[in-house]
Write a structure and sequence with these properties.
InterPro entries: Transposase_17 (IPR002686), Transposase_17_sf (IPR036515). This is IS200/IS605 family transposase. Helices cover 43% and strands 19% of the residues. The chain is of the alpha+beta class. The chain has a 4-stranded antiparallel sheet, with helices on both faces. Strand 2 and strand 3 form a beta hairpin. Helix 1 packs across helix 2.
């Protein structure tokens, strides 16, 4: 068995950045992504969203390409939300991804955990929020 420590901060948006992640689905969406990630032997260290995008800190084993993980999570979670909300739900093409060192984990987890406060107080990290993906 290989030993690995790989941490990725991944951000992706709803189609056309529409506010599709509402309060009624947010918690279920997060739980779905965490559980689906476990099926792929991935570990979610942090997850949170705003109405038009989601942040995820995840460890993906080296035998799975990051692009494959993102494709599978985006596709299956879109289907999941469409079924529970009875509305069309789509993610925008693409995503932003940043590698994180082990020492940086607490800061990134805190940033993700406090998404709503960062947006409210305008203390967002522009590189993580304003990129076009």
């Amino acid at each position: 068995m290989a030993y690995w420590q790989l941490y990725y901060h991944i951000v992706w948006a709803t189609k056309e950045r529409l506010p599709l992640i509402n309060f009624s689905i947010e918690e279920r969406l997060h739980k779905y992504i965490v559980n689906k990630s476990k099926e792929f032997s991935c570990i979610v260290h942090g997850i949170n969203s705003m109405p038009n995008h989601i942040h995820l800190l995840v460890s993906i084993p080296p035998n799975m390409a990051v692009s494959e993980y993102v494709r599978k999570i985006k596709g299956s979670s879109s289907n999941f939300v469409g079924k529970i909300d009875n509305n069309a739900f789509y993610w925008q093409n693409g995503y932003g991804i940043f590698t994180v060192g082990k020492r940086g984990l607490p800061m990134v987890i805190d940033y993700i955990k406090n998404q709503k406060q960062h947006h409210r107080d305008n203390t967002i990290i522009n590189e993580l929020e304003k990129i076009n993906f």
